[in-house]
Write a sequence for this structure.
């Protein structure tokens, strides 16, 4: 399976909102409501931020929100904070107990 | 503390083998499916392999099929990845990742990773 398509980078100023897109196919993003998003700071392990397209794990602020339309999922971060600067990866279940990740998006808080 | 700790990485020559381990603690390991996910230097995340809670179901990404074997020892709360016929392109940090207990479809806990370098 080819990787899901994400923008290489996005940026925003503190307090603003940014949206990261994640485009797949009907075999992954479009076929299942099992898109998750992960935050990764440099040298650190990934951290789950959103699961099942739009649900929050315990401890993740509701500034982070997820959605999906067709074959494209999106992560929106509102009220940007300096600590949000990180790499973000989308991931989709792709059937038969396989998963596919996006290439990652580097978020810069200006 | 709920955590996953990987070990077993290192430098290996092309064609060689390596066995990774992931020690789980702070939760009931036998209740969760588990995965291996890797990240080549400066690159993105890549799912590698899945094993169900009972070990009855295993799956692999096409690029490791036939070379890697995932297994688990629930008595020791440990996940393993046996890697054979290693190639330069297998060089990466390997993370173990826990699937959520209610559903297998996302990874709710990650280890810190162990670096595998395949080079002569």
């Amino acid at each position: 399976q080819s990787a899901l398509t994400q923008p290489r980078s996005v940026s925003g100023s503190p307090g603003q909102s940014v949206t990261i897109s994640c485009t797949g196919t009907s075999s992954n993003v479009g076929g299942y409501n099992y898109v998750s998003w992960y935050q990764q700071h440099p040298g650190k392990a990934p951290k789950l931020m959103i699961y099942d397209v739009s649900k929050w794990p315990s401890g993740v602020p509701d500034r982070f929100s997820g959605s999906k339309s067709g074959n494209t999922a999106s992560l929106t971060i509102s009220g940007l904070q300096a600590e949000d600067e990180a790499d973000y990866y989308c991931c989709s279940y792709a059937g038969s107990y396989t998963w596919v990740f996006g290439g990652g998006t580097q978020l810069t808080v200006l | 503390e709920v955590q996953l700790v990987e070990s077993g990485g290192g430098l290996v020559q092309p064609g060689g083998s390596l066995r990774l381990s992931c020690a789980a603690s702070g939760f009931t390991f036998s209740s969760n499916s588990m995965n291996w996910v890797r990240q080549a230097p400066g690159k993105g995340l890549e799912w590698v392999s899945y094993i169900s809670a009972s070990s009855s179901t295993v799956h692999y990404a096409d690029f490791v099929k036939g070379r890697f074997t995932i297994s688990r020892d629930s008595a020791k709360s440990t996940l393993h990845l046996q890697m054979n016929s290693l190639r330069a392109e297998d060089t990466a940090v390997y993370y173990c990742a826990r699937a959520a207990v209610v559903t297998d479809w996302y990874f709710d806990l990650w280890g810190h990773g162990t670096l595998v370098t395949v080079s002569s």
The interface with chain B takes residues 3, 32, 34, 36, 38, 40, 44-48, 51-52, 57, 89, 91, 93, 96-104 of chain A (CB under 8 Å). Chain A has no helices and nine strands. The radius of gyration of chain A is 13 Å. The CA atoms of residues 4 and 62 of chain A lie 24 Å apart.
